[in-house]
Amino acid sequence: ATGQPAGICPFKMVLLGESAVGKSSLVLRFVEGKFHEYEVSTIGGAYLTQTVSIGDITVKLELWDTAGREKYHSLAPMYYRGAHAAIVVYDITNADTFSRAKVWVKELQHQAASNIIIALAGNKVDLATTTRQVEVADAQTYAEENGLIFMETSAKTSMNVNDIFMAIARKLPKLK
Ligand code: GDP
């Protein structure tokens, strides 16, 4: 099949998790290849798109960040309504954020689309040697039990950032 234009499939992906775990930073790293040590809220609001190729399919990822409104949990359904995929982010140096991530996962499993693809990102892995609070094995086990894609990431060093977005993107065309 020559001369066949590849279709562009848009997919909605949301990032959920506690404040300051690095949701905006992961999006900024993935889309623009940048990292800011102090604040990322400039993209607050935040809706960014990134187009990636999966074989001969072009997938347009529409990335939604909760823009600091994760405090207002009641607004959450607005973010994940219609989402094809979600990345639930926690900070490996803060055990509370892992507990909260599990609550987000449960909520998605019960309230979001039944075929939503969920990934769990243990972010700030660059700080693992000094201040790790969440063991990788615990998160791995939890992810396996819940059918989640799982990676430890660093928006700072970019470790696994492309990989986690691409692991999700590869599954998206199969949804349609
Ligand atoms: P959000 O509230 O979840 O969107 O978190 P932000 O993206 O605003 O990040 C919160 C803080 O954590 C900022 O100071 C970031 O620079 C920092 N941060 C984000 N990701 C990483 C990371 O992978 N490693 C380190 N060391 N800091 C990070």
From TrEMBL:
Q: Name a Pfam family for this protein.
A: Ras
Top-rank taxon, per record: Eukaryota
Give the matching PROSITE patterns: RAB, RAS, RHO
Q: What start-end ranges are recorded for coiled-coil regions in this protein?
A: none
What SMART domains does its record include?
Answer: RAB, RAN, RAS, RHO
Sorted alphabetically, the keyword list is: Nucleotide-binding
Query: A single GO molecular function, which one?
Result: GTP binding
Family indicated by similarity: Belongs to the small GTPase superfamily. Rab family.
Q: Which NCBIfam families match?
A: small_GTP (TIGR00231)
Q: What is the name of the protein in this document? A: Ras-related protein Rab-5C
Phylogenetic placement of the source organism: Eukaryota, Metazoa, Spiralia, Gnathifera, Rotifera
